Amino acid sequence: MSDESRQNILNRLRIQKDLEKFTAGALARHPNLEELIAAIAALERDEQDQIYRSAELVARTNNELAAQFIAKAPAAFHAMGGDGVQEWLDGAIQVFDHRGLGFAVDFLEDIDSFAEAYAGRHAQCMFDQASVFLRHFVRGLGGRELRIATDEDTYTDTEGLYLPASFNVFPDAEQNFTLYKLTAVHLWAQTWYGTWRYQVLEKLMRHFDTDKVLPIFNRLECIRLDACLARELPGVAREMAVFGCHDEEEEQLWAQWREAAPMLASAAATAEDSLALIPALLGSPLPPLKLYQGEMFAGKVRQAMFARIEREKSAFQRAMEDMRNEGDGPEGAGADAAQKQMVDMQPTDNEDGSEANLSMQVSMDGKLQQLPEHLKDLVGSILQDFGEIPDEHMERMDLGEYSDDLLPQNGDNDADGNADLSAEGSFSYREWDCVRNRFREGFCTLRELTVPPGDERFVEETLEKHRGLMKSIKKTFEAVLGESKLQRRQSDGDDIDLDAVIEAYADVANGREMSEYLYTRYRNQERNIAVMFMVDMSGSTLGWVNDAERESLVLLCEALELLGDRYAIYGFSGRTNKRCEVYKIKEFDESYNLEVRQRISGIRPKAYTRMGVAIRHLGHLLHETRARTKLLITLSDGRPEDYGGYKGKYGIEDTRHALLETRQGGIHSFCITIDNEAQEYLPHMYGPANYAVIDEVQKLPYKVADIYRRLTT
Amino acid sequence: MSTTAIRTAHNLVTREPYYQPVGNEIAVFAAAYHNQLPVLLKGPTGCGKTRFIEYMAWYLKRPMVTVACHDDLTASDLIGRYLVKGGETVWVDGPLTGAVRHGSICYLDEVVEARKDTSVVIHPLCDDRRLLPIEKLGEVLTAPPEFCLAISYNPGYQSVLKDLKQSTRQRFVALEFNYPNAELEQTIIEKESGVDAAIARQLVKFGHMTRNLKGSGLDEGASTRLLVNAGKLMASDVSPVVATDAAIAQALTDDDDMLKAIHELSRSIF
Question: Taking CB atoms and an 8 Å cutoff, what residues of chain B touch A137?
Fold first, then answer.
């Protein structure tokens, strides 16, 4: 007998003995014990270990169950691997607990159906696994920024793409992931290739029985969009061809429809052509939806689109008004309403006739003008809805609405404006009045208050909640600190600075005085930065935003303590010019102590956002500290607004003026906001590269620290 | 293997560099040059600033000196220093001094990276005095009419520590550069990399997709230079998706989700 086979026999005997011991002999009653032991001996070592461990545990509950488990284990390992076996056994124990041994044994017997369900669960692709990818991918495809979210139905309302919580169509997770991608592309294509143009939607709702024809329209559009994608994104189209249909029969039905609508394949086809084909196909058998195809909900689209059109129209008119004002300077000849200013459209890509790649050129009084960067998204979105800039958008803004924005400030119009001016910590500031084009001296009265302490547990909870994030923030900040640099021309140091020595030698040879700075030294660069955080405490921050602001401050303080930068935190709010308030959370000279932590947790929404005066006051405080670089960072959730006419253009102009004043004092300002419409006014207020818009409140804590790091390195 | 030292004085651009004008930048630069005004080129990385200067050096038939600025670049690196040779001290001109002496075009690339003391040197050279004081020599050089100083600067950086001071930027005639429009970019890619029109068009489309991602996960989209690089790989028979992954995606980001998104975008086009 060879050594190997002897080893084998010994091995089997050992296994048999051990397992019989675990099951207190229950295993011995197994009919084909020898075969079973041989099968277990043939398993991998870690699988055997798993059987040992599990059998010992189960045997504490029931010996027979353990014996049954051992008897089925080799087959189970073949069917699904270690994790699956663990889940299978957990299931069996649960059945045993609830329904007894008989059912549990039945459960163990039926390995096949469990293995199948298990494979299904693990081949599925969850939304969370794909969402970040999808967001980037769809953003890259172009067009209006779309929300990616889950919903019971799969559809788009032209503001977002709504996808199922998981896909479990294919046996392979990778394929299900691809299906996510294709579904997103198909829905994106509806928004990009004009399925939901305003004109199309109107016709659809007005001339047809919408509910009845929508399924037909959906199929026709699918044919047209597939053709568009085949031209523009051939890679996606290839995958769609593979993933589209369940079987041959479906494929044939689709082919019949394609034959019935050949014009949809042409590059010039639009959604209107699909509409025109609807009557011809009414009554034909509908092919089932393709795997990547969603439902259509005209009502939801209409709702989202109308809200957007209103919003974008006024934003566009505001922007055009600004351009006119900049173009012809102070109200002069340009104010003549008869002077029609034209906007021209030029398709950039006329070769393949694709209408989606439209670019805009603004011509004003016949002169071509470059479309400002921040308007590109807005104009792009309007083009996606209309295919052109509608005449309505080009009309001047309703003067009534506009003049409302510029209502002259009427000072103490406020019944309860009798704030205690003699109170300590009250300051008086001027305000820029863009209607009169001059300052209103001493117009604003501001008081400095302290945030009442809140529950300090908030800080601990935040740190606990963002533990992983904190680690990575700390790491990146440490990297900033750790950047030790070789400093040249030092009076003492680790090594000789050869350049300096040669220069000194040359100086001596030339009969000049020799420099004493001849050494190099590695040292961390001194960070000489003072930063003031100005936190929006207006009423609109109630809820999520307030929480996110506070969490960001906690993480930021931790990070800043690490860097050793000097920093102060103030909140601001107020109601009318007589009651502007800033709330002290942390002064420059204060350490990050318990009290500060309590104050951070105690930040609560107050009233309005009169930004100008807060910037002037905090800018002044910042100005008085000593640092080489001074930074004023605003955390905000919207445009400046206060009771009594401080809104729209007036508020923006005053804020812009206040920022210009601080800038003259050598202070850099930066704004972090979660206002989606901020693109319209922030570049004007802060300058092009001096702001960041964060699309999701939840990202605020991470982004604030990240932006701060980027700003100061 | 032999190396050839290029004397800065003779660094003439002899062959016409390939440059596609986007607007009237050639006329503006030439006018600034003839009026002895310094020029500031603004724009994102890889949009053709350096190539433009090379082209202008060829166009104006002047030698050209390029200095890539870094955070250890001091004034004496630009002006020059004494070296010791056999017990004697010998003065060696820095690139800026050389350019002034020979009436060259001096191009300071990414000037915000340089140490602050360099602005002391640049300032008197950039206004109507056009002087370069060399303290060590006790000399003040007057720049000849042929000399021209050009600097470049990327306003997209959001660091407050790397901003161009008003007193510096207000001395320059500023030209803004951006990525060329789709048609022009396609022509550039075809010409530079040797791929055919269809592939160049797809590359441009891909470039636009990555630029859509700027601000939503990417700091910058793919520059024209990266697109040309990818085109060159494709012209050497690397498959398109591999080429865009290597030349563009990996160059833009390290983030896994973003890499995957860019990879899939590339696959959807090619």
Answer: 261, 264-265
